[in-house]
C-alpha cells in the first residue's frame, strides 16, 4: 500500500461520518452538527433509543404505527451500534500506530 492510500485517523473519521450521514440523515441532522464522530454516533444512539422508547409506549397504547416505528428504530440502533464498534476499532488502531 502506498503512502497516498494509507488510511489515517482523519480518513477513518471521514469515512465514518459519511456512513453516519447515510444512516442518520435527515432525521438526525441535528446530531451531526457538533462534536467528533464518536460524539455524533453517541448522540444518534441516544436519540434513536428515545425513539424506540416512544414506539414502545405507542405499542402499549395500541397505536397502530408503533410496531413499524419500533422495528425501524431497532434496525437503526443495530446499524449505529455497528458503526460505533468500527469507530472504536479505528480509534484503537490509530492510537497504537
Features:
mainly alpha; 97 residues
How would you sum up this structure in a few lines?
By secondary structure, the protein is mainly α.
Description:
This is Restriction endonuclease subunit S. This protein is mostly helical. It has a domain at 38-97. It has helices spanning 9-24, 37-60, 66-96. The chain is elongated and about 55 Å long.
Task: Please outline the helices and strands.
Blueprint: H1 9-24, H2 37-60, H3 66-96
Helix pairs in contact: 1-2, 1-3, 2-3
Unreliably modeled segments: none
Give the fraction of residues assigned to helices: over 70%
Q: What is the CA-based Rg, rounded?
A: 16 Å
**What's the mean pLDDT score?**
90
Beta percentage is under 5%
What is the N-to-C order of secondary-structure elements (H for helix, E for strand)?
HHH
The structural class is mainly alpha
The major sheet is characterized as: none
Protein name: Restriction endonuclease subunit S
Amino acid at each position: 500500500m502506498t503512502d497516498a492510500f494509507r488510511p489515517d485517523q482523519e480518513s477513518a473519521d471521514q469515512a465514518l461520518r459519511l456512513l453516519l450521514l447515510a444512516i442518520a440523515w435527515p432525521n438526525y441532522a441535528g446530531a451531526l452538527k457538533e462534536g467528533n464522530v464518536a460524539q455524533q454516533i453517541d448522540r444518534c444512539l441516544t436519540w434513536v433509543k428515545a425513539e424506540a422508547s416512544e414506539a414502545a409506549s405507542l405499542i402499549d397504547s395500541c397505536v397502530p404505527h408503533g410496531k413499524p416505528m419500533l422495528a425501524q428504530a431497532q434496525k437503526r440502533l443495530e446499524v449505529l451500534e455497528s458503526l460505533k464498534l468500527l469507530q472504536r476499532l479505528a480509534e484503537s488502531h490509530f492510537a497504537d500506530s
